[in-house]
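Field reference: sequence -> structure
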Amino acid sequence: MSKPAKEKLPDFETAMSELEALVDKMEQGDLSLEDSLKQYERGMTLTRHCQSLLENAELKVKMLGKDNQLTDFDADAE
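Structure field:
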C-alpha cells in the first residue's frame, strides 16, 4: 500500500485566514467531538506551517543585511 500524496499547504495569508475560520467554527461549540479533533489537527498543521514560514522570512531578513553580512532585523532602525 502506498503512502498518500503529501498535502500542499497554503501561503501564509491563506493559512491564517483558514486558522481564523477554524477558531470561529470551534468557538461556536456546534461540532461533534470527532469533528472538533479534526479541526484541531488541521489547526495545528497550519500553525506549524505558519511558524515555519515566519522563521524562513526572518532568516531571509537577517541574510539580506548590509555588506552581505549576516545581520539581525531591527524594527526600530530607520
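Note: The two ends are 57 Å apart (CA to CA).
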